[in-house]
Amino acid sequence: xxxxxxxxxxxxxxxxxxxxxxxxxxxxxxxxxxxxxxxxxxxxxxxxxxxxxxxxxxxxxxxxxxxxxxxxxxxxxxxxxxxxxxxxxxxxxxxxxxxxxxxxxxxxxxxxxxxxxxxxxxxxxxxxxxxxxxxxxxxxxxxxxxxxxxxxxxxxxxxxxxxxxxxxxxxxxxxxxxxxxxxxxxxxxxxxxxxxxxxxxxxxxxxxxxxxxxxxxxxxxxxxxxxxxxxxxxxxxxxxxxxxxxxxxxxxxxxxxxxxxxxxxxxxxxxxxxxxxxxxxxxxxxxxxxxxxxxxxxxxxxxxxxxxxxxxxxxxxxxxxxxxxxxxxxxxxxxxxxxxxxxxxxxxxxxxxxxxxxxxxxxxxxxxxxxxxxxxxxxxxxxxxxxxxxxxxxxxxxxxxxxxxxxxxxxxxxxxxxxxxxxxxxxxxxxxxxxxxxxxxxxxxxxxxxxxxxxxxxxxxxxx
Length: 464
Hints:
Organism: Rhodoferax saidenbachensis
Largest sheet: 5 strands, parallel
CATH architecture of the largest domain: 3-Layer(aba) Sandwich
Strand content: 5-15%
Order of helices and strands: HEHEHHHHHEHEHHEHHHHHHHHHHHH
Distance between the termini: 24 Å
Mean pLDDT: 86
Number of domains: 2
Keywords: Coiled coil
Low-confidence stretches: 126-144
Number of strands: 5
Pfam families: KAP_NTPase
Protein name: KAP NTPase domain-containing protein
Structural class: alpha/beta
CATH class of the largest domain: Alpha Beta
Helix content: 55-70%
């Protein structure tokens, strides 16, 4: 049984084969946009953490490669232990291999020079503690090791000469990178290099900001388009961590980013269905062969998708919810009545509103408290007023193990329903009471909330 999903497979020859979220139109739009850009250019794809940015990036890269673009993928978070981001960026360029031998040879020659400059710059930064935007010295025709060592001494000497050498170093690096990129067209590729930088918002604040500064000051060359995958709010927090809370972080970041594109958040039950298949939950629910349980899979998917959308759970959070469901289902006999709508609600509450989930566990919160919470969500009033809300409310009520509270609420409902009958109206109380017949088909008192809470909280296996 799967408890953790591997990264979604994005075939290079069919990027949208497993596109459960129907991202194809978005990716094709972004590919078209990038195809019209003339570097240097920095495009930021903005979306909260855990919303599927990496998958979009991988689909976009595959699409661009099919369109004959040379792409480089760089996961910044995996290398944020490096002292100087420049080293990691140039190392990523080293992964490019052109199929034309002549173009490859010229490309390697210019890249070799750029790598030598990178080494000198990195050593200078480490030894002298120079700011990221103020780079080292070099004369590439001389011994770089000696130059880097000499530069340290010069910091305390003629700073004007050092500054002039730094300017030469910057210009030489940019020229060499630009000449290397020109070989893409000679190799039959589009002339623009697309450089993807993923997970930048998860890096150490200093590393993330230094990365942006390196891109701005060293890779501001023709025919390079950077595509940053970021949660802009986290990047702004990194900026404040480095430069202080008083800095205007959004304005500061505009120095580095030419245009931002806010990725639309994924919604709907197609993603839930895809997760079911990837977690092998379809097999588990297929074993629930009792006639009255045959719609359990369908009901769970519908209610989970509805509630996950309403609470704005990220894609990653939804995966974690389904991991919890997998474990819970493995502890449950195949034909045990679980009432999927209520299970879906509890799984979502455990992730989106843990304090309310805890209050249910302790017996403090009631069905009314949960419905109040749902009603406060942006789309909550529609859910509560709909048949879905009726099902959830009566399920919580009948599952309540506080018998005194449960009977008091049921008594009040019956009185209200009688009044509605007298007035010849079909109100909320009538709807709630009519729904009790659904539960009586399975269990005389409905599902037990404590049992379900234990399942969702993964503690039932610990009890004797």
